Fold each of these.
Amino acid sequence: MKAIDAVKRNVEDGEIRIIKDKRGLYKFKLTSKNYRVLALGSSYSTEKSAVRSSESFKNFALKATTVEIDTPADQDNIVEPYIDITIADVKTGGKYIVEKYDGEFSWDLKASNGQILCQAEGYTSKSGALSSIESFKKNVETGTFKILKDKNGNFHYNIYTASGRLATIGESYNSKQLAESAALSVASYFKDAEIEEKK
């Protein structure tokens, strides 16, 4: 509820920017006056689509009502409520690639073959990105993995904290098996992966 209030307060007084990520996709980002990220839009292939999305967001953010429900919003989409990541083999050769792009920092967790297993972006400092990696490691170790199916029929894993809060959304795959395999790969590489800063 506090997060919703913060978004409403900052929709008019904060800054909504259109950013282009390192994959060439566009999205909007709402930041507070102290540069804290409050909302991040979906990715679009064109800047024009991202602008339209930001305008819709701004129009509805103040008018929308808040509804509390008893079950998680994604409950109906969960196709694998629990993945036993303790069966994952510990692997070496993985890397956390920390990169600065267009004034912001991001990181990718990559397997030894270069496959991207997880991504995070939108940090205003390198220390923020590094701190996020440590939080990610803790959530993998103490949290739970679930496989979900989205409205487009694709599958992805979510990582939930020990308290049940959504912490990470994984990459999308066209089958449940691939999403589950990716989750197990994260569990295999996350602990021993080296941190490498991309110049």
Amino acid sequence: MGLNDRHIQDVFLSLLKASLWGVPVRIPSDFTDWKDVARLARSQSVLGLLGEELMSHDIPDELRAKVRTFLMQTVMTHAKMNSVIAEVTAALDKGGVPSVLLKGQGVARFYPKPELRQCGDIDLYVGVEGYARSYEVLKQAGAAMQDAKALKVGKHYNASFGHIEIEVHRYTEVYPFRKYDRVYQRASDAGMTEGLVPMTFGSVSVNTPADTFNVFFIFSHLFHHYLTSGVGLRQFCDWMMILHARRDHIDLAELERLLLDMDLMEPWQAFGCVLVGHLGLSPEEFPFYDSSHTGKSAAILSRVLSEGNFGQERDVVSRRRKSYVFNKLSSLAGHLSRTCSLLRMFPRQAFRQFCHTFATGLSRFRNGL
């Protein structure tokens, strides 16, 4: 059996819901494909979340040992990430650069066991004014820094403390079309300065975005990767857990205006049906829930499960050749094929994304990048 087998996916989703909500697990008595379930969980970056539940069943000893090791590594990485966040935030504060923690460890706290959420990198927002100063502060603090030319272009630069990667953001996101970017930047500026939600790492207070903007931002990031490269269920779970935990702090009128102005209400509702129909969120906890999008949610989930987190199951790298032109044409063909399949569900959003991707790719091709 493969990862697209319905029985494997059903068991995987049942284990995930049990881990997040404590609901009973539904597993056929003759089920034996535990290795495929674990592989699917790894491809979706949620093995940490459901690992303990997985080990409570009669799985092979070899798999049990691997899962136990993975969970131990996840817990240790989680502790290291938190330590680096405290160190970096304290250094920036001392250097006069206010920062806001985006996604990741700022969302992990909403899980039943935060230390089992699989870590990625650290995203810190410092804004336009603190951007150049933050580079010098982190360099002095001992971070390994990306080339300083990153300060002149793009929305963020990269730094690292040991094996922990940090993205330091000038902007939380940049939308390719001016009409939407103006709306987004106004919302981002407000959400990064007003109503910030503090949390503590060790003895260091770290700010996270205002709740209303945060739930929109996490969804926007998720949807962007869905359109471009693929996204895993970890991102869906992050979005779901913050909606569950902070539902009483969300300004629904403000959120509705932002979704409508950004032309994202329909995708929001369709993706919400994934949370409600497949991941166990209560319909009452999802803003603007509309069950008429249930059909789309099944197609969304199918794509997510087949592609893996950030498209890791698509095996794009193995198809690369030495020819620069071939690789560019292959990439274009891939984006075009992806867009055609997405146009049926989200025609406006998919078309806009393809136009931006094509224009960006053409520019890079002309410049030999």
Amino acid sequence: MGIVIKKELDPTFETVFLLFNSHIPDWKGELIQNLQTFGVNGELFLQKHFGIVETYQKTFQKYKQSHPKESFFFENIQSEQTLLIIFLAAEHRTLLNHGEPLDLLKLRSFLASALLDLDVPDYADMPQLPDEKSIIEFLKQLDIPSEEKWFILELLMQPDYWISQLLEIVALNIPAYEKAVAAVKTPLRKLLSRFSPRENTVLLKLFFTTPHDTTVYPSLSAPLLEAGFYTRGYQGLLIEDLTKQKGSSDVEKETLLRQLKALSDKSKLDILCALKTSSKYNLELSEALNLSPSTMSHHMNVLLTCGLVTVEKMDGRVYYCLEKEAVSTLLTQLNSLLL
């Protein structure tokens, strides 16, 4: 299927991420720390490029409207839960305008598929969770900390209620988002005009394997993020500036460090060894290595990000393949660097 590249912001996604940022006391400090981890002078990068983002966030905060259920979605949650909430809003945006009825069982299956990182287009192929017992059994297989499962349990028990509340919060704050966009209109227009998703990224590779059309949007509320869901993906508007700031040798070293870190984990190394003989799909690998599907998805996302595996579609399934050229390059770089 095709990939559509948009040169405009997605109001639903932007509003949800602006809401998240508004609940982080020191979002700039956290970002600086993350940049430092990847060998970038975070303070200098923010001073040079983040004026537009700061104005955008401050304007939204000024006009933001509170909602009674806001704390459930945006306070004291982990990064994986953050992406799940964004996924909920991004993929159910039509409910904002059409008032469509919410199907409880389908929403549960949709959420369960997202939690397992399954790309299944047909409802019949999705996990079926008709009652409390099946939900609890499903939660047992999720490889997440016990203290985080209460949030997932709440969502799965009443997905129709919670998604209605989430979309209500978004609708309430769309005017604040529009004010924020107006405040950065001129510099935003320049960023949007140059937006073109980088070729050969994990995001676009994954989209080429999906059985449906997908749309990639730029993001200002998450300017350094790359994230893909079922039918929508997002790439930050400042990723290009981040790439330019690093020298080619810095980029190579960063990639090498990520790859070596991945290889130091036994499960990830076992996955690469299993892929040496032939390509395999997620559940096939899970059974072979005795890992849960969610754990396998986590490991594969890391391996995809650092370029040691790639994906291809065969017989209606997404298969993972060992990126042998990347492994050869890794060995060459180590030899050049250390010998």
Amino acid sequence: MKGKSSKFDEKAIIAQLGNENTREAAFSAIIRQYGEQLYWHIRQMVFSHDDSNDILQNTFLKAWSNIDKFRGEAQLSTWLYRIAINETLTFLSKNRNTISIDSPEGEIAFQLESDPYFDGDHSDALLQEAIARLPEKQRLVFTMKYFQELKYEEISQISGTSVGALKASYHIAVKKIEEFLAGKD
């Protein structure tokens, strides 16, 4: 997972995190480097701008409060993605009653179309509706593979799931999306 700037030196940032005098500046650099890509990763799972922002803030709060526990065994991005996934899944579990995958047809599309941050066309709305109907784990794998173009090995590190299970989940997700879209013709 590459950051958006070649000036971001992960080893230097990790060293700065270990120093109380440079910790805040280093963490600010992490937010600048990974904030947008984490936001869009969360947004693919949650679909609401406000909820995605809240989850992103929770992700960075949790990362900040656990920064001393980061040992550098994984990349910063992998560690942050894992926190973001856990925060997103916690949010989805808590809000299962208000954000239902089995929502009546059109409710998800209405939520997307009424969201001022969604600028997609009808095809995009249908795809998002199909993705929203996936079980959480399949939705997670699909969004990481399809939208973020991560390799299965990277997703495995982030999610703690075997590559074989990820491939199976992705294949099933693609089939479900294809079936949903075929039914909309």
